[in-house]
Amino acid sequence: MDRLVFFGTPDFAVPTLEALCDAGRAPLAVVSQPSRPAGRGRHLQDPPVVEWARKAGLAVVQPDDVRNSAFLDWLEALGPEVAVVVAFGQIFPKALLQIPTHGCINLHASLLPSYRGAAPIQAAIVAGEATTGVTTMQMEEGLDSGPILLQEEIAIRSQETAGELSERLAEVGAELMVRTLERIESGDVEPRPQMHSQATKAPRLRKADGELDWQQTAARLVDRIRGVTPWPGAFSRLRDRPLKILWGSVIENQAVAEGNEPGTYLGLIESRMAVSCGEGTVLGLERVQRPGKKPVEALQFVNGEPIEVGERFG
Question: Which domains does the chain have, with CATH numbers?
Answer without folding.
Answer: 4-198 (3.40.50.170), 207-304 (3.10.25.10)
